[in-house]
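User: Hi! I'm working on a homework problem where we have to compare a predicted structure to a textbook description. Could you give me the structure for the chain below?
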Amino acid sequence: MGEETGGEQVDGASGRWFEDLPVGLVVRHALTRTITEADNLQFCLMTHNPQPLHLDAEFAADTEFGERLVNSLFTLGLMVGVSVGDTTLGTTVANLGFDETTFPVPVLIGDTLRFETEVVAARASGSRPDAGIVTFEHRAHNTRDQLVCRSRRNALMRRRPI
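Assistant: Happy to help. Predicted structure tokens:
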């Protein structure tokens, strides 16, 4: 898939400079991912999260969801990670923070997710002439076209070298 700027479709590319990230740019990432039980288990183990809603099928069966839910922080990390190749690979100085992260629908084991990123704000840095601050809105949808995660991320991006 590609990206849209004012309706125009062009191929995705890695490592966009600040100047290549205009407000309104939407990148539909070609990479999709089916979430496995192993993904969820490994993430919970690595982060020391013993929440039975993620790990215990019998416990989860008795909840309003009826089954285990994928750890939402895995979903967030995957969503941002998928975006890197098309947006910030090699051109970001630093991740400045996340705002407004929501998980409107839970991710289930076996869901296949697709991802998109929109540039919602961009401004030159006041203290670093070689960089600018970009606000990305990352979104993940499941195969039922339900929004499962949305987050705004601020990143300090390098300007194109002169």
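For your comparison, note the following. Strands lie at 2-5, 8-11, 26-34, 92-102, 112-124, 131-141, 147-158. The chain is about 20% helix and 40% strand. Good luck with the assignment!
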